[in-house]
Specification:
Low-confidence stretches: none
Order of helices and strands: EEEHEE
Radius of gyration: 13 Å
Distance between the termini: 20 Å
Largest sheet: 5 strands, mixed
Oligomer: single chain
Structural class: mainly beta
Number of strands: 5
Shape: globular
Strand content: 25-35%
Strand order of the largest sheet: 1-4-5-3-2
Helix content: 10-25%
Amino acid sequence: MPVNRVTWQQVGHVTEPGRYMFRFGWLTVTADDLAIWTQFPDASFALVKTAAIAATDEAEEFHLGAFELHESSQPGVDGARVR
């Protein structure tokens, strides 16, 4: 099963924690997520779907899960993260 991932660039280099609407639905970005992107701008995060608030919600809700560092990021840093 493929994991959908997003980068800081794909979400418009957001600079504040919050809930943002994107083409795939709503995304909640935390201060911790931003701290990782600030330190590792090329990191990509897994999109984690959250439960819908109501059955009538049309847009899906997501938060950022485990992140992955890429070759241009600092070597030797484990990107696994538990939420």
